[in-house]
Design goal:
Blueprint: H1 2-29, E1 42-43, E2 48-49, H2 58-65, E3 75-79, H3 85-92, E4 98-103, H4 106-116, E5 122-126, E6 139-142, H5 148-161, E7 166-171, E8 186-194, E9 196-197, E10 200-201, E11 207-214
Parallel strand pairs: 3-4, 3-6, 4-5, 6-7
Antiparallel strand pairs: 1-2, 7-11, 8-11, 9-10
């Protein structure tokens, strides 16, 4: 019975927040970013590939970024930015830095790049995250874009690229966040469980996010 109630309240909460999110999307992006788009490559059994494009609610992003200060000197990157909800959220909060997103799904990335053109400090790269040089960026955001084995490979490549400290924000970290624990150079600053926002259940099950720093030295 408890599971059924959780599913119902989660569905209702998401429906209400999606309606509110779509209004904000249209104001910032000129279109709704609510619709889920499946991954173009995902193998759950092997734990490889990427997840689909599911836009995080603005209210959740506001909560997450309340623990992070972005300065004009920062260069922010959303890895697996999808349709660009995180980028839109930073625009809404008037973040002063350069804002980037990278998305490997060409159709979804093109959608984000199209609306982002109206903002001088927002840039969308349509391409493979494994082909990117991460050294220009100072703050990285991931909303579980990779399945566990792909995330592990990503971390190895990231560590091999970076020459300076970075901050990493990991939303929905419960599946792969353990791969950062006790890893040389990584330090967890904060972690929080979210089940409710503004009196609405955000998902069927609680979700976690964590904030890390990485120092290649």
């Amino acid at each position: 019975m408890k599971k059924i109630v959780s599913k119902i309240t989660g569905a209702v909460g998401n429906r209400i927040m999606n309606l509110a999110d779509a209004v904000i999307d249209r104001k910032i992006c000129g279109r709704s970013l609510v619709k889920y788009v499946p991954s173009i490559y995902r193998d759950n059994e092997k734990g490889i590939g990427g997840t689909g494009s599911q836009s995080t609610h603005y209210s959740i992003l506001k909560r997450i970024f309340s623990h992070v200060t972005l300065c004009p000197e920062d260069v922010f990157l959303d890895i697996g930015c999808g349709k660009g909800r995180v980028l839109a959220s930073l625009i809404r909060e008037k973040s002063p830095c350069q804002i980037f997103g990278i998305e490997h799904n060409g159709d979804v990335g093109a959608m984000a790049a199209d609306w982002a053109e109206r903002y001088e400090n927002v840039h969308v790269i349509v391409g493979d995250a494994f082909d990117l040089d991460y050294d220009p960026y100072t703050v990285l955001f991931l909303a579980r874009p990779f399945l566990p084995k792909t995330f592990a490979a990503f971390l190895e490549q990231l560590e091999g690229t970076l020459k300076h400290p970075v901050t990493l924000i990991y939303w929905c970290d419960q599946e792969s966040g353990h791969l950062l624990k006790n890893r040389p150079g990584w330090n967890r600053l904060f972690r929080e469980k979210l089940a409710w926002i503004h009196g609405l259940r955000i998902a069927w099950w609680p979700q976690y996010y964590s904030i890390w720093t990485y120092d290649p030295e």
